[in-house]
């Protein structure tokens, strides 16, 4: 009888032991915030200006990319080619999102804008509680050969935000998967974290949509709290 009880209990004990080895989503996110420099240091960051080079994997041409982020939710992404030719511009004034290309100007719809507002924040995880974002630890997966915790996050109304992967060893976020709409799913990988003014910022990243071509970005300059005028984020 005792042997039967042990046999029946064994799967339960295995599952329980496995669950105990995994942290909660909040613990993973808190470790990430600590790895970046800690909440106190991150809260002191008002703005960040990053400049670098962007290249598509199927083209030898390099483009210039400038990213400007300002608290609480303002952002500018600018991609230019030869002779400063405008290729792409994305402007967020804290409420609305406008995209500008050589084909013209478009304003993102409400759903896409809500995603963009979170995606382009300096440190989105800092405001998850404030914004009612709910996160759940799904398990562990390998990203580029390294174990990472997989965490899904949703808005307060249950709408998916994104899936994040945090390196088990370092705590740093190495990948984000975001579904912009029914036909667009993007994967952003971040690496080469460097400390600037007390906080860690990724200097390298790759971006891929729907399994297609990959764009690679390498930052050459990152400035923290050097001042950015609100006029830079005007949305027409």
What does this structure look like?
- This protein has 236 residues and is an alpha+beta fold.
- Helices cover 20% and strands 48% of the residues.
- The chain is globular, with a radius of gyration of 20 Å.
- Residues 12-18 have low confidence and may be disordered.
- This is Outer membrane lipoprotein-sorting protein.
- Keywords: Signal.
- Residues 1-19 form the signal peptide.
Notable characteristics:
236 residues; alpha+beta; outer membrane lipoprotein receptor (LolB), chain A; 13-stranded antiparallel β-sheet; 13 strands; globular
Topology:
Layout: H1 2-21, H2 25-36, H3 39-43, E1 47-56, E2 62-70, E3 74-80, E4 86-92, E5 97-101, E6 104-107, H4 110-119, E7 134-143, E8 146-154, E9 160-167, E10 173-181, E11 184-196, E12 199-209, E13 214-224
Antiparallel strand pairs: 1-2, 1-13, 2-3, 3-4, 4-5, 5-6, 7-8, 8-9, 9-10, 10-11, 11-12, 12-13
Keywords: Signal
Signal peptide: 1-19
Protein name: Outer membrane lipoprotein-sorting protein
Task: Give a brief rundown of this model.
The chain is of the alpha+beta class and 236 residues long. It has 4 helices and 13 strands.
């Amino acid at each position: 009888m005792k042997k039967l009880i042990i046999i029946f209990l064994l799967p339960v004990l295995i599952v329980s032991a496995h669950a105990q080895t995994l942290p909660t989503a909040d613990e993973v996110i808190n470790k990430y915030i600590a790895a970046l420099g800690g909440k106190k240091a991150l809260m002191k960051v008002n703005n960040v200006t990053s400049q670098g080079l962007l290249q598509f994997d199927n083209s030898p041409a390099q483009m210039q990319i400038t990213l400007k982020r300002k608290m609480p939710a303002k952002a500018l992404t600018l991609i230019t080619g030869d002779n400063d030719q405008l290729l792409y511009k994305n402007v967020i004034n804290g409420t609305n999102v406008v995209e500008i290309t050589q084909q013209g100007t478009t304003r993102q719809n409400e759903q896409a804008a809500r995603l963009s507002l979170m995606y382009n924040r300096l440190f989105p995880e800092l405001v998850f509680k404030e914004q009612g974002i709910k996160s759940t630890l799904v398990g562990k997966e390998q990203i580029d050969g390294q174990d990472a915790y997989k965490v899904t996050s949703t808005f307060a109304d249950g709408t998916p935000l994104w899936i994040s992967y945090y390196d088990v060893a370092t705590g740093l976020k190495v990948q984000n998967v975001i579904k912009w709409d029914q036909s667009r799913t993007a994967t952003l990988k971040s690496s080469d974290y460097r400390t600037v003014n007390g906080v860690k910022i990724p200097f390298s990243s790759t971006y891929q949509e729907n399994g297609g071509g990959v764009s690679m970005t390498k930052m050459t300059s990152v400035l923290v709290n050097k001042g950015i005028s609100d006029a830079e984020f005007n949305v027409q």
